[in-house]
Model the fold of this input.
Amino acid sequence: MKEEAPAALAETQRLLRRLITGPEGVRPALAENGDPEGRGLAEVIRDDAPLSAVDRLEVYAHAYFSRILEVLRKDYPALHAALGDDHFHALISDYLIAHPPTRFSLRHAGEALPSFLSGHVVAATLRAGFPWAADLATLEWAVVDAFDAADAAHLTREDLARLPPEGWGDLRLRLDPSVRILQAGWPVNRIREAFDAEQPLPAIAPEETAVCVWRRDERVFHRPLDPMEAACLGLVSEGATFGDLCGRIALEVGDSETPARALALLTGWVESGLLSSPL
Done:
């Protein structure tokens, strides 16, 4: 790079950032910046035969995009596998135009991809061909979020054993910080399950599906929920008591079956690590 006066350094840095991070490459970014011939760039970057200033900068731009693409392939592995290389590459190019990274950490680079897939006009063609893509992206981003969630002590059987009988109705349950409850129009959990098992990805049809995602012992799990369990976990997320849950369950199965159903749900949640200890 040619020597710069201190006053021009910030503007040069802004220029290079715009050119390097342009998802379509340096030349389109130069044209968008009003300098299609790259004359302004030539004033701050020397040609170095056989590469011009533009070509030299393209090396950095390619590395920038390739690194983000690599990260998003890891954050969305089943989506990448289901779409294929070409569709996924085009998707990420369009996505980065609409949502260029705004943080230093690439951890957050893909956080807007589910909303981009579900609603952005640029993604309309991909939505038509892969209508489940937004739901699958939502599930996979929940996996990323769950892995990075805060730690908390889990509710245990021993905690419950110490609770006096009269305290059960007012027991206020709390979800572990890693728990995510998703509502999807497609059973995309089947695609992720097949990917994780290294099996062929299944074709799926529209089906309202609730999925629970959570982390335990540095592993992230996910499983579908039946409507009653999904409703009960939703109540827990809103601060419901165990008594509230029993009332909700009674609406479905009646008073006589409620204690067994409620105990089965609570036991399963405790054993899976879905609840943090409020005691």
Notes: The longest strand covers residues 209-216.
